[in-house]
Amino acid sequence: MQDSIVDNTQMPEVSAALNAPRPIPLMTPTEPAPAANPPDLLTPATPAAPAALAEAAPAFSPLYQQIKALLVASLQAGEWQPGQAIPSETELAARYKVSQGTVRKAIDEMATDNLLVRRQGKGTFVATHAEAGTQYRFLRL
C-alpha cells in the first residue's frame, strides 16, 4: 500500500516545478486597458441577431410532434387519399418505431386540426372536408 503513494522527495524535479513561483503579468501604462464591457454587448440587437441565434440553437420538438410532421408529410405526398383509412395506431407505431401512445397523441392533434376523422369501431380516416354538412344531418335546421 505504501508503494502506491507518491512522495515528493522521491521526485525532486516535480516538486520543484510545482512549488516554483509563477510570474504575474503586469500591465504597463502604455498598454490600453481591456474594455469592461465590449461595445458589441452594449449595442442593441439587430433584427437579424435573433434569427442567427435561432439557427445556432438546436431545435427541439416532442416526439409526437415529429410523428405528426411525418404523417402530415405522408398526407401531402398523397400516400392516403381523402376518405381513405390510414393504418392503425399499432402499424404506425411499428413503422416509426415509437410507442402506440406517441402515435395516438399525434393522431389526436391531427384530428383536432381537422386533418383526420376518427370513427369508433371503424378506424381513422383522412378528412374529406365535406363532413361539415353531415354533422347536422339529423337536425332540422
Task: Please characterize this protein's 3D structure.
By secondary structure, this protein is mainly alpha-helical. It is 40% helix and 6% strand. The protein contains six helices and two strands; from the N terminus they run ααααααββ. Strand 1 (116-119) and strand 2 (123-126) form a beta hairpin.
Count of helical stretches: 6
Mean pLDDT: 75
Helix- and strand-based class?
mainly alpha
Question: Which sequence of SSEs, written as H and E, runs from N to C?
Answer: HHHHHHEE
- The end-to-end span amounts to 94 Å
Number of strands: 2
Strand content: 5-15%
Strand order of the largest sheet: 1-2
Largest sheet, if any? 2 strands, antiparallel
Report the C-alpha radius of gyration, rounded: 33 Å
What would the principal axes of the Cα set say about the shape? Answer: elongated
Residue share in helices?
25-40%
Brief overview:
By secondary structure, this protein is mainly alpha-helical.
